[in-house]
Design a protein that fits this description.
Layout: H1 11-46, H2 50-57, E1 62-67, E2 72-80, E3 84-89, E4 95-99, E5 103-108, H3 124-133, E6 138-141, E7 148-155, E8 159-164, E9 178-183, E10 189-192, H4 195-198
Antiparallel strand pairs: 1-2, 1-5, 2-3, 3-4, 4-10, 6-7, 6-10, 7-8, 8-9
Length: 200
């Protein structure tokens, strides 16, 4: 009967074997971590709203927005709410407030300071009510219908009453041509000529 004996490996060969195993194990761990990170990011993005993405890019970031009706807006982000974005138009002292339902495309260049978390919870109607309290003159864009120039009078949960009057005049009864009720869904942009009047 023959006895079997294990042939001992030279120390150097053991070292190479363990090195190979360690590298293979490290590569598999690295690949698994990358896959987990990629899947985590996919899940995070899938649960992120447009408003949250815009708020994360922050106030001050240059932005170009295409809105319903074909109008193109360019400027810097001033604030982001739960369903709207406000920007300072290029070369002006005014303010454009855009409900996110009217956005047809948006391009942000770079990132800036994070948006204010309290502002991020404010809804479009809240901003309009603030303008109404201040009796701020606005131009309300309605795609396919034209702009309404005037002052917000009453703001409901999903609509706005605007007292229509000429730009530069006060919303006195003698100056108001008519009052128009506009659903939020019909508004693509609210423009304020002077940002200081809105304090957004």
């Amino acid at each position: 009967m023959h006895e079997l004996y294990a042939v001992p490996m030279r120390d150097g060969r053991w070292d190479h074997l363990f090195d190979d195993l360690e590298h293979q194990f490290a590569a598999e761990i690295d690949a698994a971590e990358h896959e987990l990170a990629a899947e985590t990011e996919r899940v995070r993005v899938a649960m992120t709203s447009l408003a949250e993405r815009l708020a994360a890019r922050g106030v001050g970031a240059p932005v170009a927005i295409e809105i319903a009706g074909g109008e193109a807006l360019r400027g810097a982000v001033l604030a982001v709410g739960s369903d709207w974005i406000a920007l300072a138009p290029e070369g002006g002292s005014g303010l454009d407030i855009v409900p996110l339902h009217a956005v047809r495309g948006i391009s942000l260049a770079g990132a800036a300071a994070g948006a204010d978390p309290l502002t991020a919870r404010m809804r479009f109607g809240f901003v309009l009510r603030s303008l109404a309290r201040r009796r701020t003159a606005v131009a309300v864009a309605r795609p396919g219908t034209g702009d309404l120039q005037g002052t917000p009078a009453l703001v409901g949960s999903d609509h706005l009453d605007i007292a229509v009057h000429d730009a530069g005049s006060a919303p006195r009864a003698s100056e108001v041509a008519r009052v128009v009720t506009v659903p939020f869904a019909a508004i693509s942009r609210v423009r304020v000529d002077n940002r200081a009047d809105a304090e957004v």
